[in-house]
Structures are given as structure tokens and as C-alpha cells.
């Protein structure tokens, strides 16, 4: 990868408007505001958000998110706690939900709170900063409800910090177990909490499915969609390969919340994707949608149209991200495809989303961007392609897009009832890249 010296990012009009009234605070907060705040400003502008919403989102980010992003990188790029959100340890990841022919893109970001006590005996799992942030936001924003977040914190973790500290002292490497996503939608702020369970003595970083179910059943003993998911996991050859590792909840009143259950599979063939996305034939999906998904996955993987459906997607054989030690308990996150199962009251089957980790699979960032933009153009969704390309160039200040990969981390897809594909690109700021700090 070739480091380059680009011109500084040109601030957006909204960034310039509000920054004059936002005082500097300390070196750590100022570092994160100037990096992530400007990234967010560029993304919101590229996605066509109104100036009023841009102001709201940036002010929220300045006051509520930036103070919890932790210390800025120190000498030799040293940080006390490296997050699983970025393969180099960044505590934030952005996403660009692509427009449809009738809608604009949506911007979201996910962050892990970090404090001076992260990873110490006081906070061995690094929960304190994120939980404090969530409770402060809930006290200020009436629509934020932490009932489900509190339930899973109580049932998927143990609560004797001294025992976790002893495991760490004995050589256990703890990593990210809680992150929060913020999104500005037409109805206002939306927050989600993501939890990666970690019980004392847990082997290989994986919680057995039965223990997940104990916690889930306390909230909803009888759920048809969850039962359909379990049947698939137990009876399908593809289902039996899946590894549960994370869940997410909407931070709203429980009767309005949904639960997303995240799993990994080692398989990347389209035959495997078809089996999972149809829940082994339990979900009727039009063949046209399946073929659209197939061409999307080929486009972002840099593969030809005649690539066999039964063949695994080729990848970098020696994938060695700089924060690879972070993945020692969850090495599954460095290979295979990811899925979530959207469990909500009422439906008989879950909604399913597939994630391809393009940080490992497929071409460099420029070719990857060209691939997904080409697919969008071919499907009548190309209105924001050039804005997306320019936004990526602005965010990648330390190298050329064609000189490496990792700025675009995942591409996800969910089938919508109207025949369209709900597609999202995930973007890592590479904040701890040596060329940036």
C-alpha cells in the first residue's frame, strides 16, 4: 500500500457553519471530532440530507459520541483498547444504505465507547463508557428505551468484574462486547445496541446456542419466527454450520423493538447463500431477486458472470489485519459470510440479511466501488454513485483507493417485499492507519 499526501478534506458548508460555535475541548476529543465529525459531514452531504438534519446529526455527534471515542492514538500508533469494529482497531464504522429509484441513501455509524479504564480491572470487558453514554442519552431523549439492552446485559454476561480481571491476568484476551449504532431517519434519531456475549469461562469466544435461547425465551417464550430459525439451524446442512456470535436490539419501547441475531458461516458459495436466504425453502423468494443478489455478490467480489454457484469465493490467503490479536476469541469474523435473522413478533419467519466481508474478499477499494456502482447503474439506482465515489475519495486521505482494500468493509443485502434489494456498504475510517496518525 502506497501512502500519499492528499490535500486536506474540504469542509462542508454545514461543518463550517457549526464549527465556529463549537469550542475545542481536549486533544483526544478534538482529534476524534476533526476526523469522524468531518467524515460524517461529508457522508451526510453526499447522501442529500437537508441542512437542518445535518446540523442535528453533527451536534449530536459532537456532544454525545465524540467524548466516548477514547484517547487519540499515541506514539507508534499505541492505543489502550482496540475495537473489533475496525480490523486495525478503530472504534467507529460508518454505513451507506444505498438509494432506491424512489429514496435517498441513509447514513448510520456504529461506535464502541472507550474510557481510560477500558480493559483494566475496573472495566475488563469495556462496558462502562458505552453504558454510561446510553443512559445519558436515554435521560435526554424520551424515545430511547433501554429495556431490552438492560435485559441482555443482565443475562448474557456475568457480573463479577474481579473474576473477569483474573481471566485477563491469566492470559485471556477480551475484545469488544458492546457497541451502539446511531442513525438519523425522517422520524428522528434511532439507536441500536449490539451485544457479543462473554460469560466467565466461555470457550473459544462462543456462547452455546442453548444459552442464547435461555435469555431470548425470557423475553418471548413463544415466537414463530425464532422457532423457524431454530428449525433451520437444526435440520439444514447449511444451518448446522452457522455460528451465533452477536445480537442487536432497537432501543425503543419493547412492543416496538426487533431483535437481530447475527451468525457466521464458513461457506461463501451462492448455493449456500440461496439456502440461507430462503431459510431452506421456507421463505418464498422470487428467482429474479435471487439473481439480482447473485449479480451483486459477483460485482463486489470481482468475479465473472459464469462463476459457478457451488464454488467458494476466492479470498486473500494471508489475511493479516494489524489488530489481528483482537480476533483471537472470534476468528470466525475474519472469514466466511455473515447473516442476521430479524426476529419480530407476528411474522412466521425471520427476515434475513447477508453480509459479504469485502475487506477480505474481492478487489481493491477502487475496483470494489466501481463494481457496486456499476450494479446500481444497471438497476436504475445510479443517482448517487458519483457522490459515493467522491465521498470515499474524501475519507481516504492517506492512500489512493486503488492502492489497497479495507476502507469498504462489508456489503449487505436484504430482500424487500416490493422486489427491491436493500443494500448497504460499510466503511471503516482506518483511523489507526500509520499514515494517518
UniProtKB/TrEMBL annotation:
Keywords of the record: Transferase
InterPro entries named among the record's database cross-references: ABBA (IPR033964), ABBA_DMATS-like (IPR012148), ABBA_NscD-like (IPR017795)
Keyword Transferase among record annotations: yes
Superkingdom in the source lineage: Eukaryota
Recorded metabolic or biological pathway in which this protein acts: Secondary metabolite biosynthesis
Signal peptide bounds: none
Protein family (similarity comment): Belongs to the tryptophan dimethylallyltransferase family.
Descriptive protein name: Aromatic prenyltransferase
